[in-house]
Design a protein that fits this description.
Radius of gyration: 23 Å
Strand content: 15-25%
Helix content: 25-40%
Distance between the termini: 66 Å
Number of domains: 3
CATH class of the largest domain: Alpha Beta
Largest sheet: 9 strands, mixed
Oligomer: single chain
């Protein structure tokens, strides 16, 4: 493919991604896979160049562009070499007209700027769009640092005991430690939240928004084998992914419960007032994961954010009902917006006087609004806010 043809392909792929963001469709990565599957003539170099154009545009524009052409035209001022490819050649984009739409603005949507946690300064904001590192969590019950170093000599130990960073692109699936469930891919921030949950060695744990079970598995590896963990979620597809992962890790103390949306309490009735720990890893805007999924900025709207914060409040209330006196609730979001973090903690404590903040000593993170904040620049993690609350 010529450079102009690659640029036109990037415009077309961006059109798909922009439409999906507007209509709550698939992720950019999945859309790109489908796009290239339908264009098998594109070689590896072509695909790489097209992806670079596409993700340069996604990372650059906080507001959703009108279309893919506008997104790339907006880059011309910063990448003037792109201008020559808008030349109307075969398979290339048409020449630039004087009055056509051009993307503009900052990396963070204007309506979200004031909502970020107070600790997010300019270096932190820049780090939100850096390339995310590859972190792994080692199951200390099934492997050792020596084995990790033998398998991946380039592994760098991180601030948490079982956390390591590997070079981007490292293959794990063909290694024995991964096949045997001794290693999982997991951001260090998620590991920290699991460590906070394991601090009091709870005997009965409910992971209320378990998803594919990353934090459930981490808690299982950190707790004694006689502990019991229940992974619950309303998404059958995501929840089903726990089964092969727990078999691989020999995590026999994990059970799953599929919840009916809006009727979760019916399935959890037997757990009311029984749990030592409830983890509410709530659905959120994902602002803390922009370096992995930058197109999330194009999906979020004030209306969607309001709906999300309402759901978070409901999940905190539901989770609190399952905690026994003296037990703990951990509320966590992969977001750096106060509306989803500290504001939610304040609202919960205002409405639940029988609860109090419980401090957790971790080697990473900073205290922030009755909780802990983790961020890319300060901690090398995705962005998280989480709080640990105790029932009196």
């Amino acid at each position: 493919m010529t450079p102009s043809a690659r640029l036109q392909a990037a415009i077309e792929l961006l059109d798909w991604i922009i439409a999906a963001a507007r209509d709550n469709g698939g992720s950019a990565d999945n859309i790109a896979k489908k796009f290239f599957k339908e264009r098998r003539y594109a070689g590896s170099g072509d695909r790489r160049a097209i992806r670079e154009h596409v993700y340069a545009a996604i990372r650059r524009w906080g507001e959703r562009p009108k279309n893919g052409r506008a997104a790339l035209l907006g880059l011309v001022a910063e990448q003037p070499e792109l201008r020559e490819f808008f030349n109307g050649s075969n398979y290339g984009p048409a020449e630039i007209a004087a009055d056509e739409p051009v993307a503009s603005g900052e990396q963070i949507p204007a309506w979200l700027v004031d909502g970020f946690a107070g600790l997010i300064d300019e270096p932190e904001r820049n780090a939100l769009f850096d390339r995310a590192p590859l972190h792994i969590r080692v199951n200390g019950q099934r492997s050792t640092e020596v084995e990790v170093k033998e398998t991946w000599p380039e592994a760098v130990g991180l601030a948490l005991p079982q956390g390591y960073e590997l070079p981007a692109g490292t293959q794990l699936e063909d290694k024995r430690l991964f096949r045997e469930g001794a290693v999982e891919i997991q951001d260090l921030g998620s590991q920290a939240i699991a460590m906070a949950g394991a601090a009091a060695e709870p005997k009965l744990v409910l992971d209320l928004c378990a998803g594919a079970g990353g934090k459930t598995l981490a808690l299982s590896a950190m707790l004694p084998p006689e502990s019991k963990l229940i992974a619950a979620d309303t998404d059958r597809g995501r929840l089903s992914r726990i089964e092969p992962r727990k078999r691989r890790a020999s995590a026999r103390n994990i059970e799953t419960i599929l919840l009916a949306p809006g009727k979760e309490v019916d399935s959890l009735e037997h757990l009311k007032g029984c749990c030592d720990l409830v983890l509410v890893d709530a659905p959120c805007s994902g602002t803390g994961t922009w370096r992995r999924n930058p197109e999330l900025r194009w999906r979020m709207t004030p209306k969607r954010l309001a709906h999300t914060t309402e759901l978070q409040q409901r999940l905190m209330d539901l989770g609190s009902e399952m905690v026994k006196p003296g037990g703990r609730l951990i509320y966590a979001v992969c977001s750096l917006l106060d509306a989803e973090g500290g504001d939610q903690t304040d609202k919960f404590l205002d409405n639940h006087p029988q609860w109090q903040e419980k401090s957790i000593d971790l080697p990473i993170g900073r205290p922030y609004r009755k909780g802990i904040i983790l961020s890319p620049h300060h901690d090398g993690t995705d962005g998280f806010y989480f709080t640990c609350l105790e029932k009196l």
